[in-house]
Amino acid sequence: MNKSRIERLAPLSGLVSVVLVVFGAIVISNYDYLPAAEKVAEFLNSNPTRVSTGAYISSISAFFLIWFSGSVRSALIEREGGTGRLSTVAFGGGVAAAAAMGTSFTAILSAGLRAGAPGGISPIGAVTMFDFWGQVMGQMFAISLAVLIGATAVISIRTGVFPTWFGWVSALVAIGLLTPFAYFILFFAVVWLLVVSIWLYIKGRSEEDATPVVEPA
């Protein structure tokens, strides 16, 4: 069965999500861990437009992450069968990750907008929003991604929807996201999103090219 153009391109929404969140983070370009309140306020008050722009771009990536999660669920449930419990768990993890990411960048977007308003943003307000942004990304976003990646790992190991070796690697990434080192493991989680996004797109194209064309009688 031939898929529509949107269905064929849907897996690449994961790639788009990663590009947007990385580009937005680069625009913001402040990655200090638990900086002093005065330092955060000075940064925000000096760069309100840059921070707001970067945060807005990154927040949009949540839309594409949810779209990508739908593509992952479709691929998983096709092989899992039955009620598709783990496939649904994976989808839920993707949606939760998108919600965490969108919420965290909306917080820093609000801080940037406040910094650009008359009077700027206070040190207490600045550091509160800055820390919220960092902790939600490092904690809730990581945990939610662990659900998506972990459920995908289990199905891959059981059914071969992705190669078994990739399933085990995915399991290690998911476990790492649940540890205190999640900030560092997020790099591998982002690579995972890119790999699965491109993998599903290529797989869809290959299956479509292999489908025989039935000539009308």
Topology:
Elements (H helix, E strand, L loop, with lengths): L4 H5 L3 H16 L8 H10 L1 H33 L4 H32 L6 H37 L4 H13 L5 H29 L7
Write a short abstract of this structure.
By secondary structure, the chain is mainly α.
Describe the structure.
The chain is mainly α and 217 residues long. 81% of the residues lie in helices and 0% in strands. The protein has eight helices and no strands. It has helices at residues 5-9, 13-28, 37-46, 48-80, 85-116, 123-159, 164-176, 182-210. Helix 6 (123-159) packs across helix 8 and helix 7 runs antiparallel to helix 8. The longest helix has 37 residues, at 123-159. The protein starts with a helix and ends in a 7-residue tail after the last helix. Residues 213-217 have low confidence and may be disordered.
C-alpha-based Rg, rounded: 20 Å
Helix content: over 70%
Strand residues, percent = under 5%
Distance between the termini: 18 Å
Number of helices: 8
Overall shape: it is elongated
Q: Main β-sheet, in a few words?
A: none
Oligomerization category of the chains in this entry? single chain
Determine the structural class based on helices, strands and strand pairing: mainly alpha
- Care to count the β-strands? 0
Low-confidence stretches: 213-217
Mean pLDDT: 91
What order do the SSEs take from the amino end to the carboxyl end, as H and E? Answer: HHHHHHHH
